[in-house]
Amino acid sequence: MRKMLRKSATPQEIILWSRLRRNALGCKFRRQHSIGPYIVDFYCSEKRLVVELDGWQHNEQAEHDMERTKYFEQLGLRVLRFWNDEVNENLDNVILDISEHLK
Q1: Which secondary-structure segment (H or E) carries 22?
Q2: Which DSSP state fits 45?
Q3: What's the CA gap between 101 and 65, in Å, rounded?
Q4: What is the pLDDT of residues 54-71, one digit of tens each?
Q5: Bridge partners, residue 49, by sequence
Q6: DSSP state, 1?
Q7: Which pLDDT score, from 0 to 100, does residue 59 have?
Q8: pLDDT digits (tens, 9 = 90+) for 3-56
Q9: Taking the CA of residue 8 as centre, how many other CA atoms within 13 Å lie in the half-sphere pointing to its CB?
C-alpha cells in the first residue's frame, strides 16, 4: 500500500518531498510512513512530527481526519496539516512552519 501511495503521489506531495528529503531541514523525514493502522504523508521520527497534506476530499472526511489526528496525539506525536493550495501558493511559509516545529 505504501509503495502504491508513493507511486501515485500528488503534485503537492512531490513538491513538498523535494524540500523535506535528504535532511534538507536538518531532520530525516520518511514519506508514506505507517503508524498503527494509518499511513501518514510525511513523518520525522526524531521530532515525532507528522505532516499531512489535505486536498478537496478532506472536506468530506473531516471526522476521519480528526480521529487520525487524535490517535497520533495519543501516541505523543504532533500533527501539522496543510492544504494542497498552501503548498501551491505559499510553499515557503509551509516550509517555515514545519521548520519551526522541528526546533
Answers
A1: none
A2: T
A3: 20
A4: 987 656 678 888 999 999
A5: 44, 78
A6: -
A7: 60
A8: 666 667 899 999 999 999 999 999 999 999 999 999 999 999 999 999 999 987
A9: 5
Which pairs count as long-range contacts for 86-91, CB under 8 Å and 24+ apart, including other chains?
87/12, 87/15, 87/16, 87/53, 88/12, 88/15, 91/15, 91/16, 91/19
The pTM (predicted TM-score) of the whole model is: 0.90
d(CA 65, CA 11): 21
Which string of b and e fits 55-92 if b means at least 16 CB within 10 Å?
Answer: eeeeeeeeeeeeebbeebeeeebebeebbbebbeeebe
Cα gap 36→53, rounded to integer Å: 19
In the 8-state DSSP scheme, what is residue 77? Answer: -
Domain ranges in the chain are 2-6+18-102
- Give the Å distances, CA to CA, from 35 to 42, 50, 81, 100: 11, 10, 16, 23
> What is the topology classification, in CATH, of domain 2-6+18-102?
Endonuclease; Chain A (3.40.960)
Dist. CA 62–CA 11, nearest whole Å = 22
